[in-house]
Amino acid sequence: MLKQLLFTSLCLLFFIPVFAQTHEDSVKNNPVTDTIAKHQVADTVSKKPTDTVKHAVVDSVTKVHPTDSVVKQPEADSSASVSNKSAIKTTKKSTTKATTKPPVVLDAEPKHSTVKTINDLRYNAYLKGDDLDNMALAGDLNHFPSPDSALKYKKQLDLSPIQVGQLTKLSTELHRKKVEMGTNIIRNEKMLDSLFHSRQIDEGSLIFYTNRSGLYYGELKGAILMACYKTEKLLTPAQIKKLETLEKTSELVK
After folding, report:
1. What is the Cα–Cα distance from 226 to 237, expressed in whole angstroms?
2. Lowest mean pLDDT: which of 63-72, 142-151, 215-224?
């Protein structure tokens, strides 16, 4: 009996340290596994949030600034700017068309003379370049027609394009000169009337302005007869003869 007790006590003494040692070893091993599990959990936790954060950031970036919207927005802006430019061009064109100056139309209505010494008929003739004094008579009576008479019957006279062009230049220049001299005559007559009306006239101013009046009339008559002289040089004798016949026929019809 005593032997059994001793044997069991010895066994207990032997196995208790071993059991304690195995327990300590198991405890040591278990924390390792726990820490490993914890590290794994930490890794998964750390990885998952970062991934989710990255995904969230990427998604938010792609959603907030999609490639299509970024590309399409400048296109829309460029198209808007193009439309604005086209609108500006159209407005410019419309404004330029609207602000285009109308053709100058001469006043057909007779004007009242502003000079007491010139009646309304002569006043308007000076302004329009009409010859009321028949200053071309010396040329007409001696077979030197005026350019306007030749152009009036250009089809009947069978004028060449060169003749028509040169006669047109003569007629245009003659009309310009008539208007210029007519305006000068009106101005000169107005000055003479003003000097007499205000009693400021003297011998010197009287001689000056009357000589100027003769100068203007002489220059006007000289321009008219010079045009007749140049017209005779452009026409053939047959054309001049036919022109005189046509003018006589038209006078008889009137």
Report:
1. 18
2. 63-72
